[in-house]
Write a structure and sequence with these properties.
Number of strands: 31
Number of helices: 17
Largest sheet: 9 strands, antiparallel
Shape: elongated
Structural class: alpha+beta
Strand order of the largest sheet: 13-12-11-23-22-21-20-19-18
Helix content: 25-40%
Distance between the termini: 91 Å
CATH architecture of the largest domain: 3-Layer(aba) Sandwich
Radius of gyration: 31 Å
Strand content: 15-25%
CATH superfamily of the largest domain: DD-peptidase/beta-lactamase superfamily
Length: 675
């Protein structure tokens, strides 16, 4: 029996199922429903803690039959209201949370519709009415027929098969369309509705959390306030090839206001290095390359005369022991070789360019000694990003892989099997494509443009020559998410081969490691694989998480855009988190005057990196180029540089005499400039 005495205020609804009444007790209003509901179902719903669910109070019976009591929510059924897009999205996200709470408790609602959603006067919804609800039953082929409301009930509720969580997803999709009104026809919402309401439950979203994420992605705010750009393309894709989010910002051609789409060609820059590593691993599995072999076995021009043996794997993870060098670019090599562009818009005799480029790079590396400041230390001990090393690796791919060029090898063994039809390693031809992005860069606050895809390319293609599109790179991401298999099942690398690529080899900043042509980092509680790219007119970032089951691709036609920050924001948004990272607050440490003095100096490489560390008001400061940045000491040999968009890390390295001889910054080691 009831512990309270309820007084009838009014009858809200009468039906063959029993009355629904507004009642009062102890000065509060409640709803009394004369309904049969199992004690276990009642208990589970009652015990669910969710602010968007009608709260059940007690079960009892009187002379009129069994009933249960629930809270009374002052408000209006959603069926009697119209909503702006913003209001509708808020309602739908709260409805997702309510359904998720029920499903977690093993309860299927089976009658989700606008009239069962009360828009409370407190600004939040309540999902009500558990008349048709049931407990989830596994391994049952069918259950009760024709429960729920026609038009909202999933097909399986008519006896086709067992109802489960996906039945509520179907009803959610129908409800979503009604709540959105005319906004339901927008592509970003129509795609979600269509997937929710598939006849076959296996083709719907797997759970309500996936629906919630899809809605969040559809209304993702503009998280790109970080820099002036020509244009940006962003996509999130899952391992099945389903696009969870896709958007385009700005233009591929600002002057003519030409839009970006998923087939617009962008430069990949150093994202190319992941293709090099993938190619090398293919050749390893084919028995044509051994990771422990000296590079000189495959590239005799690289004599290695001043360095201990550099092995293939050393270049794959940037641990060969060389400081960054001047970028040897394609037009310089072409001019030296006496080559011109041919009538088809690409350089003739690419093999000759490759040979000349290999010779030039090998000579530059072989000229390095400790005495002239060109060597960091023995191979395998220090990480310093080396474009030239990946250039030589791509030449190994060309020579061992049996193709005329690195680009042809990648096309035949990666691009074509993955159906990446608009990707290539060509130097000039992409610029002639009608849907290729113009390249932009900022010079003294002025945005300038050009189409010289070859002028910013390395002579050896593996350093950064590939171009691609958002549509193609989604396929590339899916291959990694499926451990070497394309969406159609085509395998281009073994599962163990992908795992080998993704295995951490050396630390280069806190909780970040370089692998083979990829890096691994922690993003909140997720482990993320990634690689970025930057060249004049190109900013790119490839990332994915096996934990999350999704990957992100960001392509931009402007230099210097923090695309990794954008990729991280997208990954966070996918999980419903704040897109902008709350900067981790390290415990600052004190460095005495002697140590601060030892840390001061200018550190510069031939790659045009220039960092000056100096004392200012008893603290250290950093000048990067012409930009002054705050420096925070956090460990004995580690400091943080506070950049506007993302923190950087400076690690100090001592020689055998206890002197600071170099710093690690941005994945590179920069030698101290001698006084």
């Amino acid at each position: 029996m009831s512990t309270l005495e309820y007084h009838l205020m009014s009858t809200l609804k009468s039906s063959g199922k029993g009355d629904i009444q507004l009642v009062a007790a102890d000065g509060k209003l409640y709803v009394r429903r004369y309904r049969e509901i199992s004690q276990e179902l009642f208990r589970r719903v009652r015990d669910v803690s969710c602010p968007y669910l009608e709260r059940l109070m007690e079960q009892s019976e009187d002379e009129n039959g069994a009933y249960f009591i629930s809270e009374y929510v002052e408000g209006t059924p959603a069926s009697e209201r119209t909503f702006s897009e913003k209001e509708a999205v808020k309602l739908l996200l709260e409805l997702c949370a309510a359904i998720k709470a029920l499903h977690k408790a093993g309860v299927i609602h089976r009658d989700i519709k606008p009239s069962n959603i009360i828009c409370g006067n407190d600004g939040h919804i309540r999902l009500i009415d558990f008349d048709s609800a049931r407990l989830r039953v596994e391994f049952q082929s069918r259950d009760t027929e024709i429960l729920g409301t026609g038009g909202y009930a999933a097909p399986e509720q008519y006896g086709f098969m067992q109802t489960d969580d996906r039945s509520d997803i179907y009803a959610f999709g129908v409800t979503m369309e009604e709540i959105l009104g005319e906004n339901a026809d927008k592509p970003k919402f129509r795609r979600i509705i269509r997937r929710c309401t598939q006849f076959d439950p296996d083709r719907r979203y797997r759970d309500i959390s996936a629906v919630w994420r899809a809605i969040k992605m559809a209304v993702m705010p503009d998280f790109l306030p970080f820099a002036a750009t020509g244009g940006i393309a962003v996509a999130i894709v899952d391992r099945n090839g389903n696009t969870q989010y896709e958007n385009f910002f700005g233009y591929r051609d600002q002057d003519r206001k030409l839009p970006i789409d998923e087939d617009t060609i962008f430069g990949l820059a150093s994202v190319t290095k992941s293709f090099v590593a993938l190619s090398i691993m293919q050749l390893v599995e084919a028995g044509k390359v051994d990771l422990d072999d000296p590079v000189s076995k495959y590239i005799p021009e690289f004599t290695n005369r001043n360095q201990k043996t550099v092995k293939v794997w050393h270049f794959l993870c940037h641990t060969a022991g060389f400081y960054p060098m001047h970028r040897t670019i394609i037009n310089e090599i072409a001019q030296k070789a006496g080559l011109d562009e041919n009538e088809t818009g690409d350089f003739a005799f690419c093999e000759k360019i490759a040979l000349e480029g290999t010779k030039a790079v090998a000579e530059l590396l072989d000229a390095q000694t400790k005495e002239n400041g060109g060597l960091i230390g023995d191979p395998g001990n220090y990480m310093s990003y080396c474009n030239d090393g990946f250039g030589l690796l791509s030449e190994i791919v060309r020579r061992v892989g049996g193709e005329n060029s690195f680009a042809e090898y990648v096309k035949k063994h990666i691009l074509e099997p993955l159906h990446m039809e608009r990707s290539s390693g060509e130097y000039v031809r992409p610029a002639a494509d009608a849907n290729a992005a113009i390249l932009y860069k900022m010079q003294k606050g002025v945005m300038t443009s050009g189409r010289d895809y070859h002028d910013n390319a390395f002579s050896l293609g593996g350093a950064g020559s590939l171009k691609s599109t958002l549509a193609d790179m989604k396929k590339y991401i899916c291959m990694y998410l499926n451990y070497g298999k394309g969406i159609d099942g085509t395998r281009i690398l073994s599962q163990e081969g992908v795992r080998t690529m993704c295995r951490p080899r050396i630390d280069y900043r806190p909780e970040s490691h370089y692998c083979f042509g990829l890096s691994q980092k922690k993003l909140d509680d997720l482990t993320v694989m990634e690689h970025g790219g930057s060249l004049p007119g190109v900013s790119s970032n490839l990332s994915w998480s096996y934990d999350a089951g999704v990957g992100v691709m960001v392509l931009c036609n402007t230099s210097g855009v923090p695309v990794s920050t954008i990729a991280d924001a997208a990954m966070r948004m996918y999980h419903g988190r704040n897109p902008i990272e709350d900067r981790f607050v390290y415990q600052e440490t004190e460095w005495d005057a002697e140590k601060r003095k030892a840390m001061c100096g200018t550190f510069r490489s031939d790659e045009d990196n220039n960092i000056t560390i100096f004392e200012k008001d008893g603290n250290l400061a950093v000048k990067e180029g012409e930009t002054l940045l705050r420096f925070v000491p956090v460990q004995e040999f580690l400091g943080i540089v506070r950049n506007p968009d993302k923190d950087g890390y400076v690690r100090f390295f001592e020689n055998e005499n206890g002197e600071i001889f170099a710093i690690g910054y941005g994945g590179r080691m920069l030698p101290r400039v001698k006084d």
